[in-house]
Design brief:
By secondary structure, this protein is α/β, with parallel strands linked by helices. It contains eleven helices and 15 strands. The N and C termini lie close together (9 Å). The structure holds zinc ion (ZN) (2 copies). One zinc ion binds next to helix 2. The site of one zinc ion (ZN) has 7 residues, from helix 4.
Length: 346
Amino acid sequence: MKAVVYETFSAPPRVQQLPDPAPETHGVVVKVMATGVCRSDWHGWVGHDPDIQLPHVPGHELAGIVEAVGKDVSKWKIGDRVTVPFVGGCGTCPECHSGNQQVCDRQFQPGFTHWGSFAQYVGIHQADINLVALPETLDFATAASLGCRFVTSFRAVVDQGKTSAGQWVAVHGCGGVGLSAIMIANAVGAHVIAVDISDEKLELARTLGAVATLNATRVANVAEAVIEISRGGVHVSLDALGHPTTCFNSISNLRKRGKHVQVGLMLAENSTPAIPMSKVIAHELEILGSHGMQAHRYDAMLAMLQSGKLAPEKLIGNTINLEQSIDALMNMDKFEGTGVTVITEF
Ligand SMILES: [Zn+2]
Ligand SMILES: [Zn+2]
């Protein structure tokens, strides 16, 4: 198969021919039809992820067709259209037994713990609990764009933030994660305030349902500005970027008993940000994380897609081929362009 491979961290990857994967007894091989390019692929490529062993094939936001099935798989067959959460569960640990495969004790992540989907084929373990069937009406590029940022935002807004109609929500950072969160929060009936440093991204945020936007470079104090717009602070706030400044602002702009959900990754030098802990105590704030979403929760999200309440295809920026994915990967930290880049030609 053709695949994007890197043999050294931070050195340009190359497209190479590799042997086709074979399914594990409990796994499947998926023929990749579309796969998203994500900032966490960039984090992996520069060496921020200790799970990655070289040489490595990145890619974790995939959709495709089941090509081969292991002998112990009972729910899936060749030809099924599928996607997969970026965190896969083992099926036997206490977290998996409680239905929380997204924090499995022995989790696997294609593109991190094993070779990923910047390739014609990818192996997926424990297929019975980790694959998600795609509705016939959902195209592969849109399905791939759900895989990481959209489901993480869905879990952040709906399951962790428990956002309800009429509440105020602040979203700090309007990349793929933030724009997804804005669409989802708007769909559940919340009033969304979008914060970014790019007017272009804020304009897109408005078209996706933000009722107010703030350019952080043009206000003296972002948290105070959010508190003023929301008349007392927001009920739920997301750091969708993953930066000490956006994390701090997101906690600081909450109203009493509000919830901060950390969605953007905090790695390397950003891994221990300052937190206004006196405010967390005095205002009984909650600080939560969102680490993807388990396969069995996709039904709720897919139902909102099919009813037209969510339209993730609006977040797709560019569709590219496998060769072009190398440039896209190496430049993922530059915050350029709007929307999600998806590889659709292999
Ligand atoms: Zn598990
Ligand atoms: Zn991702």
